[in-house]
Amino acid sequence: MQFKAGSSSIPNFFRIMKRQFTETEWHVIKSMNNEWMQLDMFHRHWALKESFLKAIGVGIGFNLQRIEFNVSPLQMEVGKVYNETQMLLDGEKEEEWTFEETRIDDYHHIAVALGKQEGFGQQHIDVCSMQPHRAQFTLLTFEDLVAPGIPITSEDSAYWDNFCSKQESPMKQSSDSR
Residue 49's closest CA among 69, 30, 29? Predict the structure, then answer.
């Protein structure tokens, strides 16, 4: 099977992205049974790294090899929240950080970083103690998101009828129609 991100294959994608991971992380990613499982583990590690960067308020300019994740367990069940994954920063285990992870389906990972932001140019906030009874992740539908919305203008049925009467894709103009 081919992975299409533009015209790239999974091996080419991995060749480009390998520099964003430590050797230990890369070993875990590549130890998965096939390319699709490797890609899945890649996405899990990427979600973890991204959650940490967002939590400390820095951009992707941060050297991602400074952070290393020891994921646990290796396989996660859809809908179950895990917090066993450990992070090392500059080779030192970070006891102050917890990473909550879940899979919302077979293709999507979610990771949330919870910890102290001290030492990253932010004010000291202990996120874990602020929310002692955190809720589980909830999968929202489009309807859930728009239900509390209030329209800013009244409904114009003529606009909708006009929109629906349009062709699915623009017609190519022929040179004869000029």
Answer: 69
Residues near 59 by Cβ (< 8 Å), separated by ≥ 6?
53
Global pTM value: 0.66
At 90-116, the pLDDT tens digits run 999 999 999 999 998 988 999 999 987
Place of tokens 């060749």: 15
Is 10-131 a domain of CATH 3.90.470.20?
A: yes
Residue-wise pLDDT tens digits, 130-151: 344 455 667 788 898 888 888 8
- CA 19 to chain CA mean position, Å: 19
Token pair for residue 21?
């991971």
Place of tokens 């490797």: 38
